[in-house]
Amino acid sequence: MFKSLFSRFRETPEGGGTERASAAAAPQAGGTQRFLSPDVLSRITSLELLARTVVEGFISGLHRSPFTGFSTEFAEYRQYMPGDDLRYLDWKLLGRTDRYYIKKYRADTNAQCHILLDASASMRYTTTGITKLQYAQFLGSALAYLANKQQDAVGLIAFDQEVRTHVPALSRSGHMRTIFGRLGQIEAGNETNLSKMLHQAAERITRRGIIVVLSDFYDEPEPLINALQHLRFKGNDVIVFQVLDRNEVDFEFTEPVLLEDAETEEQIHVLPDILGDGYRSTMQEHITQLRDGCARNKIDYELLTTDKPLDHALFSFLAKRARQ
Amino acid sequence: MSFLNPLFLLGLGAIAAPIIVHLVRRTKAPRVEFPSLMFVRRVPQRTIRRRQFTNLLLLLMRCLAFLLLVLAFVRPYFGSGQANDAEKERATVILFDDSFSLRFNNRFDQAKKRAATLLDEMRSGERAALVTFGQGFEVQTRLTADRGQLKSSLERLQPGAGGTDYAQALRAAEGLFKDVGAREKRIVLISDFQAIGRNQAEASYRLSRDIKLATIDLGEENTPNLAIADVSLQPLIYQAKYADKLSARIVNYSDEARTGVRVELQLNDHMVEKREIKIDPREATTVEFTGFNLNEGVNRGVIVVEGDNFPYDNKFNFTLRRVQQMKALAIETAGRGRSESFYLRSALTTGENLPFTLDVKTTGTANPNELAQYRVILINDAAVPPALAQSLIKFVEGGGGLILSAGPHTESAAFNQAFQPLPLAKLEEPVQLRGESVSMSDIKTDHPVFEVFRQSGRLSAAHVFGYHRATPNEKAAVIARYDDGSPALIEATHGSGKVLLFTSTFDSSWNDLPLTPTYLPFVRQMARHLGERRERAWNPQGQVFTVAAATDGTPPAVDAPSGERITERKQTPSGELIINAREPGFYRLRYPDASDFAAVNLDSRESDLTRLNVEEFVAGVTGADPKAAAANAAQEKLNSEELEARERWWLWLLLGALFLFVAEAVLARRMKMAKVIG
User: Fold this and answer.
1) Helix crossing, A175-185 with A132-149: angle to 10°?
2) Measured between alpha carbons, how far is B476 from B615 in angstroms, rounded to an integer?
3) Which of B28, B31, B34, B671 to mutate to test the interface with A (most CBs of A within 10 A)?
4) Which residues in B have their CB inside 8 Å of a CB on A?
5) Distance between CA B103 and CA B629 in Å, rounded?
6) What is the per-residue burial (b if ≥16 Cβ within 10 Å, else e) of A204-235?
7) pTM for the full model?
8) Residues of B in contact with A215 (CB under 8 A)
9) What is the pLDDT of residues B87-109, one digit of tens each?
10) The Cα angle at residue A247 between residues A246 and A251, in degrees rounded to 5
11) Cβ atoms of B319 and B234 closer than 8 Å
């Protein structure tokens, strides 16, 4: 995933990808100075402050970033094509040269960014002290802040069996406080049908933009991919963050346990020694199917465990935003 | 199947441990909330029933492992058919030699270890008895299957101080088998097998055919030893200097000559004299000591030999008593010329260390009231007046010694009348042999008077020309007769005293006895026999001896050589205290006004550590051919090896238990369900 991101950075006109590559490598080496761990972030009660802390810290480390022209800065000219908005036609150039060029500013793409947050009961799970929902909230707030910084309109949809919270995407000032406030109030709810809720979201979001899906994706891969395809089909760039606890991936139980499904309350006696391998392979198969399905539909997929710094998610988001 | 250590079966209770742990520690698995079970459900899970079965399997493995462990300690063995039953019904008598030779070279401890091993190897249900023996025997534990009791008895055993007598011990063991219904009866003889232990007088003794004899031999070849076989001495001394010879006989019980052997005489814990001697192999050397001074009263003497590795038998204890001379009175017929008691006086008053001083009086001068001061009175062919006779009879009744001689001055009728109360003899007519003589040929050499003539027999050399016939009283004993069968010397007891009647004369009128060398010892022995207290310089270990009571009749308090006060207070009818001489050394006799000592010595025969041919001995006792006995011994050994092989089940059981424990650990680790879910 990082490799694909890096290669994408190198392709940018400013050619600042080399610096990003070294910056991205930092979390591997000694990222505690650079990146704030979720554990530290969990002590910040205000989501706004948290988002600012993450994003400002993240941006300040970018140096000559390829994303500096995202605001209202001139980006490039391109030849006018029928259908282009005439507002972007460079009339002065047309007057001088009699040629039709479109003046492209990156900052005024004015994209919409929707954050779809799974708030089902399964997101309540934690073994590290930070629930998946909390992690998703941190990530969502950071992404919202980042998007807002780039003048994008940010919207929020949180759901379990039904839509619990819907904040339409706006870019006006003060909107972010609404986002952060609503985001902070979300608590893990009931059972969910993720595919169904994604379909609903696809129908709700009328204007295309970036859709960030934050969920543990406990559903069958096929309906999930279909739902994501639905979002994609609507013209959205979809970024999928599968948020899992480390124990869900590695299944690190050592003693026999009686597992209770957080959503259905079904119980099963489990022998970790016997079940562990099977579970891990099944989980990996599920992740692989998701990742492959996303790749086929040009959906960015990122697997995040709650012990990872948020920066990975931000890179993925920025890369996607850069394509807008 | 039988067990060597059935007590360990109590350990089967340990099987309850895993069961209790299983029941108590059936903890439930903790309930943990998990985001979704959709992937868990896809993995095939073992059913709870399967897990319960696994648990049960683990429990069974643990129980079985404990069972095997306990069985390994119980040491089972497997016999076959009747032989097995016979083993169950076997009865064993352990004959444990506790003679003092077992003190040599730590043999006693070895014997105890071997006996303990024997007890450990007892079959389940087998009964055993423990009998210690030396010169005698003592049943420590009768036949019992209680191994703890037997071991406790064994632990308490201490080495003894006695000799060895195998025949007596075997008889005792055989006696224990009476009324015992065991199919197999076995005697295990644990000993050092000294040759002296085989009593030749009992050489024909045979064990019953149904009794087997096994041996545990602790003896070694070539065990040199020095010992004091005997000490001869005069225990009563009447003067300061010991003029007689004190002879110690030192024996070299080895095949090599011993030089530089130090022999030491100690008196009252002080060294008096030391000698160095050489003793040839298997020979004895006599060392003589004389001319040393003695204290008044009792003196403790010890002969000590140095120069071997077994010091226990290198001491010989004895007592020497220096006492006042006794007074003797000779009463004769008044007459002219030489006293008729001339020869008597010469015999009793000549020489050194004389026990007596002799007064000679006539029947007229003898004062009946002064007789009590004398120990012995000799009536030397005198016609005794009735009053004097009465006094003499009372004198005898009071414990005095009276010697009567009947010669030409003695009238039978008057004599018989005067001494009628004495149960002595009826004196008859005198016999005068003209030109002929008789001799005292028929003498009882075991009597103290004649014991000195036991070897020489010279008394018969004296000629007797005249004597009185006498018819002895039925209570009297004739201890010497003439050739014609007439009594020569008759002894009777009256009251506390004794009387001797010599039917001839003490002078040369009726015999030439005074002219022969036998006269002096004859007369002195008679006087000593009646007047002198019988004194023993030492007593043999293992026998009883008596000590006199105090003047008021109370017996003394007695301390054993170890210092332990003897509490047994058995007395003879005459009031003497009977002491069982269990240990060598000096027994201290505490009288109210003084102390006395009695010496006790080991049986010196036991010092000869020469070994017996065990095979021949066993063959002789069991009546089997020696070669057959040797073959049987080999067979017995084979059987032991076979038995040992059979008993090796414990090893396999232990390995089985170990395997089960390892398998259980592996399985439990694999399942992780050992403590979960019922």
Assistant:
1) 180
2) 53
3) B34
4) 28-46, 48, 51, 670-673, 676-677
5) 29
6) ebeeebbbbbbbbbbbebeebbbbbbbbbebe
7) 0.52
8) none
9) 457 889 999 999 998 898 888 99
10) 135
11) no
